[in-house]
Specification:
Mean pLDDT: 90
Distance between the termini: 49 Å
Strand content: 25-35%
Bound molecules: iron/sulfur cluster, zinc ion
Helix content: 10-25%
Strand order of the largest sheet: 8-9-11-12-13-14-15-16
Structural class: alpha+beta
Length: 439
């Protein structure tokens, strides 16, 4: 597949020069040359992305690996990365494919359709854009996330968010989860160690919040560089004032890498101190990262301290009936879960019967927005077939469609069809292959 694609965000200047407007660097690029990220190239006075669909890694992993603990805890994601990055962090933990461009790290090229098909074939409904920084192949991420949404698949954007406002606002409708890395709240840290500045990053986090997007924040704790009490206090004070105390915050350990080999691995005591400071400032959900077993990995109810989600390495166990709300005291845990989606305004319960083993679900969407209908299948305990408990039907704007839903096996007891107002949903028994019941 051709990995060249004309960039979406740039201006033509005189003498075949172009100015890239995707990120705050605003690289001015001459013919035959590349921008700072090395994946945007001027060819004859037009700017091209050179890594459209070029993937280094594709991994199935828990969503927690992406610095996300409060969106469907324990869900599996199809995680994908490419090459290049628009920041120049001296402590980059992924420099082999962000900066070195070792050709041996290029594995495969994909089209957006192939990625969506692959996620579906693995029965995964979350695609995570991660490993390097999705800004590097923004146009590909945009195209795939849009297609994924049309297919009921959620996208997670794990990034430094060193990104201009317009592209961020453009991609917001197609991204369901933002994992925002704020490396420090101090501008001098960004200038000294990242070849960037902090303001575009904090602005991006505010834009996501103002647009009602879902976000979690991570901070990589680098010993001697951003691990003082003042560093932690400044960061959590900014989060409290500008984003809110309910946003999950992760303090992750650094390991010596790239140009910062002389700095030791972050002691767990530093992470514990950061967590303490954040909690003392009123942040409700503060976590550790890059540790195998640590109390800071678990989710506890902030009111009664009941254990809600236990995490040991990649083993995630939900200890609450609904991870969104504490069983013991009813406190809202600010967790987006499939079960919480059930508590949307309306639902229809269909009880299965082997005589009528299929139904038509008629869905009418009179609005201008895409929405989803959740199917929650309930089975008896003898159920053996590996079928997801939840499925999402994407409903496009101004459509009136019927979807066939079938009984899965003899242990399939019920399907709960969950939807929001103002969708109109009706269920018809499907008695025969050619049967199409009308009122
Ligand atoms: S995306 Fe790349 S080319 Fe564009 S401004 Fe940023 S670093 Fe420069
Ligand atoms: Zn509680």
């Amino acid at each position: 597949m051709n990995t060249l694609k004309e960039a979406k965000y740039y201006e033509k200047l005189s003498d075949s020069m172009v100015k890239c407007t995707l990120c705050p660097r605003y690289c001015v690029i001459g013919d035959g040359k590349s921008g700072f990220c090395r994946v945007r190239e001027n060819k004859g006075g037009r700017l091209f992305l050179t890594n459209y669909g070029l993937s280094t890694y594709m991994v199935v992993e828990p969503i927690e690996t992406n610095g996300v603990f409060h969106f469907r805890p324990g869900a599996r994601t199809l995680s994908i990365g490419s090459v290049g990055c628009n920041l120049g962090c001296k402590f980059c933990q992924a420099w082999k494919y962000t900066r070195s461009f070792d050709k041996s790290t290029y594995f495969e090229t994909y089209s957006p359709e192939e990625i969506v098909r692959y996620a579906k074939s693995l029965k995964l409904d979350i695609i995570s854009w991660t490993f390097n920084d999705p800004i590097s192949w923004f146009e590909f991420v945009y195209d795939t996330a849009k297609l994924a949404k049309e297919n009921g698949i959620v996208s997670l954007f794990k990034s430094s968010h060193y990104l201009n406002e317009q592209p961020l606002v453009d991609i917001l409708p197609y991204i369901d989860v933002f994992s925002v890395s704020i490396k420090s709240i101090r501008d001098d840290f960004y200038r000294r160690l990242c070849d960037g500045s902090v303001m575009p990053v904090t602005h991006a986090a505010e834009v996501i919040k103002d647009h009602g997007g879902y976000l979690e924040i991570s901070n990589l704790v680098v010993p001697t560089q951003n691990n003082s009490d003042t560093d932690f206090t400044m960061l959590v004070s900014w989060i409290k004032e500008h984003i809110g105390t309910e946003v999950p915050l992760h303090f992750a350990r650094f390991h010596p890498d790239y140009l910062l080999m002389n700095v030791p691995r972050t002691p767990i005591a530093d992470v514990d101190r950061a967590i303490r400071i954040a909690r003392n400032h009123g942040l409700q959900h503060v976590y550790s990262g890059n540790v195998f077993m640590h109390p800071g990995l678990n989710t506890y109810c902030p009111s009664c301290h009941k254990l809600i989600v236990e995490r040991k390495g990649e083993c995630i166990t939900i200890k609450n009936v609904d991870p969104a709300m504490c069983d013991s005291c009813g406190t809202d845990l600010h967790i987006v879960s499939m079960k919480r989606q059930e508590s949307r305004s309306r639902s229809i319960e269909h009880v299965w019967n082997p005589e009528i083993w299929a139904i038509h679900v008629q869905i009418e969407n009179d609005c201008d927005q895409t929405t989803t209908v959740i199917l929650h299948h309930k089975f008896s305990t003898a159920h053996q077939v590996n079928h997801p408990e939840y499925e999402a039907i994407t409903v496009l704007p101004r459509t009136n469609m019927r979807y066939t839903v079938s009984m899965i096996d003899e242990c399939h007891q019920k399907t709960l069809i969950v939807y929001d107002d103002p969708l109109k949903v009706r269920v018809f028994d499907n008695l025969d292959r050619a049967y199409y019941e009308v009122e």
